[in-house]
UniProtKB/TrEMBL annotation:
<dbReference type="InterPro" id="IPR006083">
    <property type="entry name" value="PRK/URK"/>
</dbReference>
<dbReference type="GO" id="GO:0016787">
    <property type="term" value="F:hydrolase activity"/>
</dbReference>
<keyword id="KW-0378">Hydrolase</keyword>
<dbReference type="Pfam" id="PF00485">
    <property type="entry name" value="PRK"/>
</dbReference>
<feature type="domain" description="Phosphoribulokinase/uridine kinase">
    <location>
        <begin position="49"/>
        <end position="211"/>
    </location>
</feature>
<dbReference type="InterPro" id="IPR027417">
    <property type="entry name" value="P-loop_NTPase"/>
</dbReference>
<dbReference type="GO" id="GO:0005524">
    <property type="term" value="F:ATP binding"/>
</dbReference>
<protein>
    <submittedName>
        <fullName>Nucleoside triphosphate hydrolase domain-containing protein</fullName>
    </submittedName>
</protein>
<dbReference type="GO" id="GO:0016301">
    <property type="term" value="F:kinase activity"/>
</dbReference>
Length: 247
């Protein structure tokens, strides 16, 4: 049974439609939800899951779909999906600061979304709090292009955090894995991601030339860094051109 099911979600302020193969739902998504439920049983502190992938793989939508599934399947503990993007530095900070990249001073605003534009210290404090407490979590609102603090109340026993950089094998970032109990990493072909990212920017109002320029300056760097510089995960998947996820 390999039919496609369609679902509608609101993602970062935008209405989005997502499709998943029934076979993948039955053989990948539901079993991993059952595994998390088993891991959570009898566990004193909260179960924290990392879902990591390069930009344009659909991880935000997938995390919301896993939350949806967990609420609608008997015997599975409810999952709460949240994201890393609320830990961008605030927009006024990004506009007024630069970082040294390969010996060149680069305005943060030119590389927004790159590793260097996230507040790793703030993230670690929140993750420490999250282990044993119900807390408020920030989001990144793409309608205003800025962080909104304390937007989500996190109170479920299993929390799924999605983001590009959660398994990054670099100083300060590699320590994040100590906060998670289970990790998923999704691979994808670079050319497929290039096409998706350019289309995304054009939907946001950029011309093809502007979108291509942004990809070459920022998105391509992020894609390669995520794919080639990450720690091992418990479950590793690949996204195909048709949007399906396979082992």
């Amino acid at each position: 049974m390999n039919n496609i099911k369609e679902f509608n979600f609101k993602v970062n302020g935008f209405d989005m439609k997502a499709s998943y193969f029934q076979k993948t739902i039955d053989e990948v998504f539901i079993p991993v939800l059952r595994k998390w439920t088993e891991m959570n049983n009898g566990k004193g502190e909260r179960l924290i899951i990392f879902l990591v992938a390069p930009p344009a793989v659909g991880k935000t939508t997938l995390s919301l779909f896993l939350e949806y599934l967990s609420k609608n399947i008997k015997g599975i503990e409810e999952v709460q999906a949240i994201g890393l993007d609320g830990f961008h530095f605030h927009d006024d900070y990004i506009r007024s600061h630069s970082v040294n990249i390969q010996g060149e001073e680069t305005p943060m605003s030119d590389i927004k979304g790159c590793l260097e534009t996230f507040d790793i210290d703030k993230l670690k404090v929140k993750l420490e709090e999250l282990k044993n407490n119900d807390i408020k979590w920030p989001i990144y609102d793409r309608n205003i292009h800025d962080v909104v603090e304390d937007s989500i109340f996190v109170d479920k026993k299993i929390v799924l955090i999605e983001g590009n950089w959660l398994l990054t094998d670099e100083e300060k970032w590699r320590d994040l894995k100590e906060f998670s109990n289970y990790n998923i990493f999704i691979y994808a072909d670079e050319e497929l991601l290039k096409q998706r990212l350019i289309e995304r920017k054009m939907k946001g109002g950029l011309s093809y030339e502007e979108a291509l320029r942004f990809y070459e300056k920022s998105d391509s760097v992020n894609v390669r860094k995520v794919l080639k510089n990450h720690l091992p995960a418990d479950l590793e998947l690949s996204m195909k051109a048709n949007g399906d996820y396979t082992h």
